[in-house]
Amino acid sequence: MSHHIVEVKHLRHVYSDGTVALKDISFRITHGESVAIIGANGAGKSTLLLHLNGYLEPTSGNIRIGDTPLSKGTLPDIRRTVGMVFQDPDDQLFMPTVFDDVAFGPFNLGLSLPDVEQRVATALDLVGAAHLRNKPPYHLSGGEKKRVAIATVLAMSPDILVMDEPTNGLDPFARRQLIELLKNFEHTKIFTSHDLDMVLELCNRVIVLHDGEVRADGPARQIFNDNALLTECRLERPLSMQGCPVCGRGN
User: Fold this and answer.
1) What angle do CA 236, 238, 242 make, to 5 degrees?
2) How far apart are CA 123 and CA 135, in angstroms?
3) Do the beta carbons of residue 43 and residue 212 sit within 8 Å?
4) For residue range 16-34, what is the model confidence (pLDDT) as tens digits?
5) Which end of the chain is more exposed for a tag (fewer CB within 10 A), N or C?
6) What is this structure's pTM?
7) How far is CA 127 from the centre of its chain?
8) With the CA atoms of 143, 149, 152 and 155 taken in that order, what torsion angle do they form, in degrees rounded to the nearest 10?
């Protein structure tokens, strides 16, 4: 499988209650890009992410990962390529220990115990959580859980990392640690976030969703300097671009 693109064409999703979450979404993300998908609550961000490795099935439209169309038949290969980190790490951590959680995916790939142990050690080292290896996940802090949730995905060696609100619920210190961690990842990164300062720091490109549609797609600073667009989509500039509230000087 070629891993160089994520291509979404005319994606539409209607929930069983008739709610139209996505109307006609199209974009293309190339290998190595770091892209934020932003928008107000209800814009369709989480719904979109859940399509990228098949947790939701489109009502219409299609998704390709590299040269491979996403379908029921290709899901195992797609999910090895696209790693999903959910907004709430408790949705991902369910085993007795951190080791068991991180090892779960590699064991399901049929890897040998030595290979699994190597993957677990490497993934935990990457997220700075090797010392948590034998702890029960329910004893971890929010920031520790987030790191371990990312490790469970990295242990599968994905080419694309998809994250829903990665800094949600983190204290300032844990947030900074996570941002520095993500800076060092060479994966293609796609994430949603209301943390627009993090978006500005990590992403050169931003896709704005509004009422289930792509309202804008372009360089992050260009998007955040478009006041009319931000007002229409119920967004604000990142705090770092708003200037000093005392002296009035902008950045």
Assistant:
1) 85
2) 16
3) yes
4) 999 999 999 999 999 889 9
5) C
6) 0.89
7) 16
8) -50
Distance between CA atoms of residues 146 and 140, nearest Å: 9
Cα distances from 13 to residues 57, 88, 148, 222, 236, in angstroms, run 8, 23, 31, 29, 27
Q: How far is CA 219 from CA 141, 150, 169, 181, 200, in A?
A: 35, 26, 27, 22, 10
Gyration radius (Cα) of the chain, Å: 19
Query: Which amino acid makes up residue 127?
Result: V
Q: Which residues pair with 30 in a beta bridge?
A: 5
| Triad 145, 167, 188: Cα angle to 5° | 95
For the structural domain made of 5-92+159-241, what CATH number should be given? 3.40.50.300
Asked if residue 4 has pLDDT above 80, the reply is no
Please name which of 177, 198, 162 lies closest in space to residue 52, comparing C-alpha atoms: 162
- The structure tokens listed for 86 are 């959910």
Angle formed at CA 226 by CA 221 and CA 231, multiple of 5 degrees: 125
SS3 (DSSP) at 209: strand
Q: Please tell me what DSSP assigns to residue 129.
A: -
**H or E element, residue 49:** helix 45-49
Name the residue ranges covered by the structural domains of the chain.
5-92+159-241
Measure Cα distances from 54 to 2, 9, 225, 229, 231 in Å: 18, 15, 34, 31, 33
Each residue of 131-186: pLDDT tens digit? 999 999 999 998 899 889 999 998 998 889 999 998 888 888 888 888 888 888 87
d(CA 213, CA 40): 12
